[in-house]
Amino acid sequence: MRLFVSIDLPDALTEAVSAAQARFADAEGLRFTDPGQAHLTLKFLGDCDSDRVSDIEAAMESAVAEAGVAPFDAAVGGFGVFPSPDYISVVWTGIRDGAGAAETTRLHEALEEQTTELGFDPESHEFTPHVTIARMDDARGKELVRRVVRETDPDVGTFRVEEIRLKESTLTNEGPRYDTVARVKL
């Protein structure tokens, strides 16, 4: 099983995510994510045996308790890229500062601690709460992407975060499919 822990965006924001993606429609070399599967990854776990799911779920419950995060509102907006504007592999919209970013970061840090104790590798980069909206396969559209990121600051929407989810990612010819394996309430 290929697993990760996420905060899923509600269906009510699917059209807004799609509208954000549309700003990049003319950028060649971009592959858009399915707006109906939009999520914020709190912790990527990778390939795991199914017998580890109960331990991971327990770690998620401990992380939620440790983070002390109650349900909160998160505002999604703006654009960014990873790893840098010079070499773009991911285009994203983020969780705005002061509007869910601190809570999201606390959840990530607690999950990082709990899952590392289970033997999962710690993240090798700083956490930035974001929702991936596209992946850049080649640099043909890089200048357009850089311009849109620099010149626009869209509001995608605000939603209530009440749980985190353990998700299984299955790679298919049509793209990844995400299925919820477990849910942990805040």
UniProtKB/TrEMBL annotation:
It holds the Pfam family 2_5_RNA_ligase2. It catalyses: a 3'-end 2',3'-cyclophospho-ribonucleotide-RNA + H2O = a 3'-end 2'-phospho-ribonucleotide-RNA + H(+). A motif (HXTX 2) lies at residues 130-133. Its EC number is 3.1.4.58. InterPro entries: Cyclic_Pdiesterase, RNA_CPDase. The keyword Signal does not apply. A motif (HXTX 1) lies at residues 39-42. It is an enzyme of class 3 (hydrolase). The active site is at residues 39, 130. SUPFAM superfamilies: LigT-like. One of its GO terms (molecular function) is ligase activity. Keywords: Hydrolase, Ligase. NCBIfam families: 2_5_ligase (TIGR02258). Hydrolyzes RNA 2',3'-cyclic phosphodiester to an RNA 2'-phosphomonoester. Belongs to the 2H phosphoesterase superfamily. ThpR family. This is RNA 2',3'-cyclic phosphodiesterase.
